[in-house]
Design a protein that fits this description.
It is built from 1 helix and 27 strands. The protein is mainly β. The strands form 7 sheets. Strands 1, 11, 12, 16 and 17 form a 5-stranded antiparallel sheet that branches. Strands 10, 18, 19, 23 and 24 form a 5-stranded mixed sheet that branches. Strands 2, 7, 8 and 9 form a 4-stranded antiparallel sheet that branches. The chain is elongated, with a radius of gyration of 31 Å.
Length: 508
């Protein structure tokens, strides 16, 4: 509690609040013509997409995002062999912001966008021409500093103002992106006539630790190469390598022991073959999102010892992080080939798993995260290559009793994926990681406005004997009799219940 404030308002009271929290769905559509050195397209096997981090702007009451979408096209050429082609597209979308006067935009706005590809379709229009459409889902969040100061009107002696301050553990979200880092790997060729059909890389963050002003982001890049020898479909195979990384990201306001979530992007992957080696290089862009709790002060109540007043109050719905579960789980399924459309006698060359969480349910002392895994299989049968997609539901349980979350965020990655054909059945095994964020809300009631009116008439030197009622506090009694809290003689804390006190003496 502060008394005798030199100014009407106390020191600025503000906290981070969302300016925007929306799921934005956008679609890109691009036409491509393959260069002459690229074999003609007979059939598309697979198209994968990697959205790279966007550039961010604010203008006209909205947040604007635009970035690059890297495609990897895998197809059968006119000669029946497999080929790939890297393609790029641009994406852009915007989201409205709450630009009300309650926010101090001079302190900056934090923009975060988690972007994933939701569906990709490719249509071949001519031997070298195709159209690719991609639907993107972006979870956009924007944070600004909201001002939590009461408005004061009417004439009053500033020295007569009594203010009851409170403290609340406000959530502060921090974000940082690291410098682009170049990584490389050399792989020995198994045979001289081996050809690299396609290459892909995924960065898996295994650990993020916070320090004063920066975060250490550690993990590995999983490099996958599809190789074959021309004229020998049975030779198609997958080569994998792991490239470790440990990068430091500067984040203003970050403190040790802060909860962090890491992510990393791969761009500009290039592959060449020289002197019996496959030379690979790529760029890594690490990213960290952190949540910390900071003490925030606010005005619970306010009055004057010299003037009558009317008060208004406001309830703020304060965001909180109620749990940050991390864990791994396995998915193992055995499916009859007759239910998959896969031809008997096929050989699995490659399998890629893409998990997406879409629902969270709470039961007694546990939470259930559910979603779907899309498995993309590359197959070879009787010298022909084919592709098949299979979607399987997953269910992941973790313990906890945090109440009903108001929002779920879940970043899922595939740590390991295998598929094999056993007789008339398809067996799929995957190891998946979950990095979830369960958000909740708490209500904060603060004084929002006070209007001072006529002066209080009383005689100097009066002594008042007060018999507190249950629920009365030093503050409520002081406000009722227009006296500073220091004038109350009671052996209790400043805001404790006075119900057990027989009487108190108030010296006006």
């Amino acid at each position: 509690m502060n008394s005798s404030d030199a100014m009407y308002g106390a020191s600025p009271k503000r906290f981070q609040m969302p300016l925007c929290d929306k799921l934005i769905v956008t679609e890109t559509s691009n036409d491509y013509v393959l260069p002459d050195y690229q074999p003609e397209i007979r059939r598309v096997l697979r198209v994968s997409a990697t959205p790279l981090p966007p550039a961010k702007y604010i203008g006209g009451g909205k947040a604007e995002f635009n970035g690059t979408l890297d495609y990897q096209l895998l197809y059968i050429g006119s000669d029946g062999e497999m080929y790939s082609a890297p393609l790029t597209a641009e994406y852009a979308f915007n989201a409205p912001l709450d630009m009300s006067s309650e926010f101090d935009l001079n302190e900056g706005v934090l923009l975060i966008a988690d972007i994933r590809d939701d569906a990709i379709t490719a249509r071949v229009a001519a031997p070298r021409k195709l159209n690719i459409k991609c639907r993107l889902c972006a979870r956009v969040k924007a944070y600004g500093m909201m001002i939590c100061e009461e408005r004061i009107s009417g004439e009053v002696n500033p020295m007569s103002i009594e203010r009851l301050d409170g403290e609340f553990p406000a959530l502060m979200t921090l974000w940082g992106i690291g410098e682009t880092v170049e990584l490389s790997a050399d792989i020995l060729l198994g045979a001289e006539d081996t050809r690299v059909v396609s290459a892909s890389a995924e960065a898996l963050v295994s650990d993020v630790s916070a320090a004063e002003g920066y975060a250490d982001c550690r993990g590995e890049v999983r490099l996958t190469l599809l190789t074959c020898r021309d004229g020998s479909p049975a030779s198609a195979e997958i080569l994998t390598r792991s490239i470790p990384f440990n990068e430091q990201i500067e984040i203003e306001g970050l403190e040790p022991n802060t909860d962090c979530r890491g992510n990393a992007y791969i761009s500009d992957l290039t592959v060449s073959v020289e002197d019996g080696k496959i030379l690979c290089s790529m760029n890594l862009i690490p990213e960290v999102i952190a949540h910390r709790t900071v003490p925030m002060t606010y005005t619970r109540d306010i009055y004057s010892t010299e003037n009558y007043c009317e008060n208004a109050y406001r309830d703020y719905s304060m965001p909180t992080v109620i749990s940050l579960p991390r864990g791994n789980f396995s998915q193992s399924e055995r499916i009859p080939l007759s239910e998959t459309g896969i031809q008997s006698g096929s050989r699995i060359v490659d399998v890629v798993c893409k998990p997406v969480a879409d629902k969270l349910e709470s039961e007694k002392n546990k939470y259930i995260l559910s979603g779907q895994c899309k498995y993309s299989l590359l197959l070879e049968c009787d010298g022909e290559y084919n592709a098949s997609d299979i979607t399987l539901p997953f269910r992941y349980e973790f313990s906890g009793d945090y109440g009903e979350p108001s929002e779920l965020g879940a970043d899922m990655r595939t740590l390991l994926c295998r598929a094999r054909i056993d007789g008339d059945n398809l067996s799929i095994d995957a190891e998946l990681s979950v990095c979830a964020e369960l958000y909740g809300t708490q209500t904060l009631r603060a004084a929002s406005e006070v209007r001072f009116g006529e002066r209080v008439e009383r005689s100097e030197g009066d002594m008042i004997i007060c018999f507190p009622a249950p629920g009365d506090t030093v503050w409520s009694v002081s406000k009722k009799y227009f006296v500073p809290t220091s004038k109350i003689s009671a052996p209790v804390g400043i805001d404790e219940d006075l119900g057990a006190v027989n009487y108190i003496v108030i010296n006006s």
